[in-house]
Amino acid sequence: MHKFLALIFLSLVVGCNNSQNLDNTNYDDPIPPESGGVLTNAMIGEPNNLIAMIAGDSASSAIAGQIFNALLKYDQNLGFEGDLADSWTISDDYKKITFNLKQDIKWADDKPFTCEDVLFTWKKVTDPDTRTPYGSDYQLVSSASCANNHIFIAEYDEPYAPALETWASLHILPEHLLKNENINDTYFSLNPTGTNFYALDEWTTGQQVKLKTNPNSVHGRPLLEKKITRIIPDLSSQFMELIAGNIDLMNINPIQYSRVFPSRSELNDKINLYKEMGNGYTYFGFNLKKKPFDDLNIRKAISYAINKEEIINGVLLGLGEEITSPYKPGTYWENKSINKISFDVSKSRELLEKSGYQLNANNIYEKDGKPLAFEILTNQNKQREMTAVLIQRRLQDIGIDVSIRVIEWASFVNRFIKTGEFEAVVLGWSLSLDPDQYSIWHSSQDGPGQFNFIGYNNPRVDTLLENGRKELKNEKRKQIYDEFSKIIYDEQPIIYLYAGYGLTAIHKKIKGVKKITPPAGVFHNDYEWYIPKKFRRNEMSL
Amino acid sequence: MLNYLIKRILWMIPMLIGISLISFFIMHLAPGDITSNESAFNPKASEESRQKLRELYNLDKPIIVQYGLWLKRIVQLDFGSSFASHQRPVLWETKDENGNIKPGLIQKALPITLLINLLTILLIFSISILLGTIAAIKKNKIPDRIITLFVFIGFAIPGFWLALILMYSLGVVNQVLPISGLHSVGYEQMSKLGQIFDLLKHLALPVFISCLSGLAGISLYVRNGMIEILNQDFIKTARAKGLYEKKVIFVHTLKNALLPLITILGLSIPGLIGGSVIAESIFAIPGMGKLFYDAVLMRDFPVVMGILTIGSILTLIGNLIADLAYAWADPRIRRGLVK
């Protein structure tokens, strides 16, 4: 609650202070790249552990990603390119991937990087004693080996289509530093040695993480000399630090993007805003194991009764998109031929009546004396709460009695989702880059703690998901997942509500940011970013 | 006297066991554990791997067994390590065989919180005693009314709201104070004096904000205590024998009116280690409040229990010190106690 009030207040104050021009420098002049300089940004939480396979929090992966490399990485159009691997080949039966590793690469401590490091990392991530939640993808590798110092071979019993993605997300760790360590509580997790652009300079607990360039970086030297990430848990405080010029970039929210910035021209003189498709979507999910949600007509009726456009405008101030498949709009895997179910009250009533529901004296639909009423459950997340309220209102209009319950995350997961004791939820999933959705939609994945907790069960979808995992040809795979997306949309086991944009504010003194954000995101080329000398803070002593 | 002290200290042991037992059970009554929070909705993380974690942390054992394991460690003063993936020690730093130091969570958070709270209490008490005394002397006159109004506004105003206004006006518009954090960039290069000054600048707003709500209670306490004593016969006697008013107020009245404050001071000892979650979040101060709050949300049991245990020990010690100090300051109680 306090954050919400704070935002209202902030927009008031900010709106009333137009006369305050804090900074008269003109940042728009083109200036050629200059190396050096310190970039300061902020995060809401402190990284836990810079060994990403163990950490699992987003703060850790953000920092660790600048220190470590995987074998592969995504290029700016979200295809694969080599990271520590130069090239890779897939055998004809799709069961063997051979990675040719880059040669003459050194760790930040000058020890050579070899295939043994990759093998060691694979052994660690599949070791039952390693406290990692990510082991299962790599356990599918039936044998991993090094043909020589620069050739790593991973063999699978069955073709596994998401395999390349898994090798793009596994940070390779140095064997020589970790072989005698317990990876679960090693000091290395606080002071790592990697191969990527940056190395840890200094970590002030609870306050900031400072990175410096790694002279042995596999991709050469980035332009920015240092990166400071300050830990500021409150987003209003972060925003004030941004407009005071103390941090150079942050993720902003829709109110800041479309209310605060347009009303303050002096902010636009020194800060650029970037908008890109975000990484997740929000949905309204039914518990399919409960009546009346096993009835397709009811699900469709509810889908027709929800005004998704209104939700996008109300919750995200228009900064989001409707989706029809669980893939990023505009990317390869999206099924563009699906027709949207749009807001249509009469269709909704028609479907309800087809299922035998009639309006009763209180204007609520009922069947066999039982009114159509249920509870929407969601966790403490402002956007989801607002979404639930808008849905409640629309369903109330049509004659469905809905209540809302907002619950703290841990209780939400353990008391309701795991036990299946819920009727409907407003929740989110990420928009994955690989199209595989096995763990969310396959009927075998509906046990307690698994991700098909809504209980979706369709043999055709099961087959598609199984085949999709084995098919490595993109065109064939695309057909499989197009059909999958179509079936899911036709059956509406969840109602896709919106995929919000990621909004980033970056100070104009940071040059080299691409004007048109590539699919891989605004940070994709941050090694080319630079701060011209005349815009740098007084940072000689750093 | 010594018997009394020993008896009181021995009594603390069953009390502590009781407190820890109740907090341990309440904490475990809340649904979920660390494994369900760290990767609950990560499709890449399987349920088997979470079960594996649960076994590693003994979370699959019956709760009474878990309590026994915890108690066994705690009597050896081992507060254990956090369940979070950094595995940092709860209380104090540990050294591995290569001499690398993992800092303790409480060790890092406590000094900051203590500093802020000590400054706050010092300010609250000195300002409150001053304001309370003035209000009592000018009882029901304009200064009294103004002071009462002022302290109640301070009490009623939402701290986070005022904090944001002050941050905006003093940090963004007129850049005189830092907005958030504890140190400026380049803190390490400053001189010792510069570092202290830098720290104080960063603490000015947080301390001011936490002071504001505390003034009302204490200053009214002082005011009412003073008024009650001013009406007593011995004050009349003092005045009748022609003592200076200054002496009447500051020696005879104030001294007596301050006695109950000793209890309050004692009771605020446990509060010294607790921080405000909201203030710490807004000002980006890595203190005890945020540490505790995050640990509760993450169901990081060792950290929650560590902080609760230290908190209860300090509460019991605070009570004891308050009682002893009271006896030391008030001869009436001292005599009753000796008997």
Structure at a glance:
Chain A has 18 helices and 21 strands. Chain A is an alpha+beta fold.
How does this model look, in words?
The complex is a heterodimer of chains A (542) and B (339). With 542 residues, chain A is an alpha+beta fold. Chain A contains 18 helices and 21 strands. In chain A, strands 11, 12, 13, 14, 18, 19, 20 and 21 form an 8-stranded mixed beta sheet that branches. Chain A starts with a helix and ends in a 35-residue tail after the last strand. The longest helix of chain B has 39 residues, at 192-230. In chain B, helix 5 runs antiparallel to helix 6 and helix 5 crosses helix 8. The model of chain B has no long low-confidence stretch (mean pLDDT 84). Chain B has helices spanning 2-29, 34-38, 47-56, 63-75, 105-137, 142-156, 159-173, 192-230, 233-240, 245-257, 259-267, 277-282, 288-298, 301-329, 331-338, and strands spanning 94-95, 101-102. Chain B starts with a helix and ends with a helix.
Kindly report how far apart the N and C termini of chain A lie: 39 Å
Helix content class of chain B: over 70%
Low-confidence stretches of chain A: 11-22
> What about the largest sheet of chain A?
8 strands, mixed
Distance between the termini of chain B: 10 Å
> What general form of chain A does the structure show?
globular
E-strand count of chain A: 21
Sequence stretches where pLDDT stays below 50 over 5 or more residues of chain B:
none
Shape of chain B: globular
- Biggest interface and residues each: A-B, 76 and 65 residues
Mean pLDDT of chain A: 88
Could you name the key traits of this structure?
A: 542 residues; alpha+beta; 8-stranded mixed beta sheet; 4-stranded mixed beta sheet; B: 339 residues; mainly alpha; 15 helices
List strands and helices in order, with pairings.
The complex is a heterodimer of chains A (542) and B (339).
Chain A lengths: L1 H15 L21 E6 L8 H4 L2 H10 L4 E3 L5 E3 L2 E6 L5 E6 L13 H12 L8 H5 L1 E8 L2 E6 L6 H7 L5 H4 L19 E7 L3 E6 L12 E6 L3 H9 L5 E3 L2 H10 L1 H4 L2 E7 L2 E7 L9 H10 L2 H9 L3 E2 L23 H10 L3 E2 L5 E3 L2 E2 L1 E7 L2 H17 L2 E7 L1 H9 L6 E7 L7 H4 L17 H12 L3 H18 L2 E14 L35
Parallel strand pairs in A: 1-10, 18-19, 18-20
Antiparallel strand pairs in A: 2-3, 4-5, 5-7, 6-7, 8-9, 9-10, 11-21, 12-21, 13-20, 13-21, 14-21, 15-16, 16-17
Helix pairs in contact in A: 1-9, 11-13, 12-14, 17-18
Chain B lengths: L1 H28 L4 H5 L8 H10 L6 H13 L18 E2 L5 E2 L2 H33 L4 H15 L2 H15 L18 H39 L2 H8 L4 H13 L1 H9 L9 H6 L5 H11 L2 H29 L1 H8 L1
Antiparallel strand pairs in B: 1-2
